[in-house]
Automatic annotation (TrEMBL):
Gene transcribed to yield this protein: ftsE
SMART domains: AAA
Family recorded in the similarity comment: Belongs to the ABC transporter superfamily.
Domain of life of the organism encoding this protein: Bacteria
Species lineage: Bacteria, Bacillati, Cyanobacteriota, Cyanophyceae, Acaryochloridales
Function: Part of the ABC transporter FtsEX involved in cellular division.
Main location: membrane
Sample GO molecular function, one term: transmembrane transporter activity
Name by which UniProt lists this protein: Cell division ATP-binding protein FtsE
UniProt source species: Parathermosynechococcus lividus PCC 6715
Length: 244
């Protein structure tokens, strides 16, 4: 049963401890267009799985970029793990990003590195000791069912397999929050469902997930809260009674 209400009235008060990501009255505009996001408030609670929907151009990616500190709000504030997101503060952002995993529609894998090296990349950059790194990569690849492809290169994999590599890369550091930006946008319907169920299984292991999609059918498959962006506003629509 879903009890969390994600779309909140604006608040300046301290958030409850299980809120790990928050937008407070956020407005974001681009050039001469109407505001992309117009006074949007949102609270994501630890351990939940949220769908974020809306037509193309409704601002889904922009909302995720605000949460990950890739862009700044024109008004309002963004909070992650109890801290204000400050994209111009490199040190603070590096700490916050350690607790974030991000998946993209186009996978963004390094074509000249093997699957295992792609998954290991962020751990290498962080200076993770080799035995821990190898153990983490092994565990992440096992979770996504790709142990047998560890030595393959991305162009030898199907689209669904490439997205599973990018999921392994996103979870290898043990993030608290996974931002999935249209992760099934380049995949056929059957593979899209497989990716959705994989992320759902990771959620059942404790991961908080924000999953954007414009595919309404996908949001009907699992009984998670559905948030919808429409004309710059965020709404929470009824949660379906799905049978996974
Ligand atoms: N850097 C930018 N400069 C100018 N306009 C931008 C920029 N980023 C986004 N936009 C505009 O903001 C609006 C929302 O874009 P966004 O990518 O967030 O939508 P989306 O819902 O993720 O779309 P899609 O489903 O097609 O990926 C669009 O009109 C887009 O053109």
């Amino acid at each position: 049963m879903v009890t969390a209400t994600a779309v909140q009235r604006p608040s300046t008060a301290q958030s409850s401890p299980d809120v790990i990501a928050e937008l407070r009255q956020v407005t974001k505009c681009f050039a001469a267009h109407p505001p992309c996001l117009n006074g949007v408030s949102l609270q994501l609670r630890q351990g939940e799985f949220y769908f974020l929907t809306g037509v193309s151009g409704s601002g889904k990616s922009t909302l995720l970029k605000l949460l990950s500190g890739q862009t700044t709000p024109d008004h309002g504030s963004v909070h992650l793990f109890g801290q204000v997101v400050t994209p111009d503060n490199d040190r603070a952002m590096a700490q916050l990003r350690r607790r974030l995993g991000v998946i993209f529609q186009d996978f963004k894998l390094l074509g000249d590195r093997t699957v295992a090296d792609n998954v290991a990349f962020t751990l290498l950059v962080r200076g993770t000791p080799k035995p821990e790194l190898q153990q983490r990569v092994h565990t992440a690849l096992k979770l996504v069912g790709l142990t047998a492809k560890a030595s393959a290169y991305p162009d030898a994999l199907s689209g669904g397999e490439q997205q599973r590599v990018s999921i392994a890369r996103a979870i290898v550091g043990g993030p608290d929050l996974l931002l999935a930006d249209e992760p099934t946008g380049n995949l056929d319907p059957q593979t899209s469902q497989q990716i959705l169920y994989l992320l759902h299984r990771l959620h059942q292991h404790g991961l908080t997930v924000l999953f954007t999609t414009h595919d309404r059918a996908l949001t009907q498959l699992l009984p998670h809260p559905i948030l919808r962006l429409h004309h710059g506003q965020l709404q929470q629509v009824a949660t379906p009674m799905a049978n996974p």
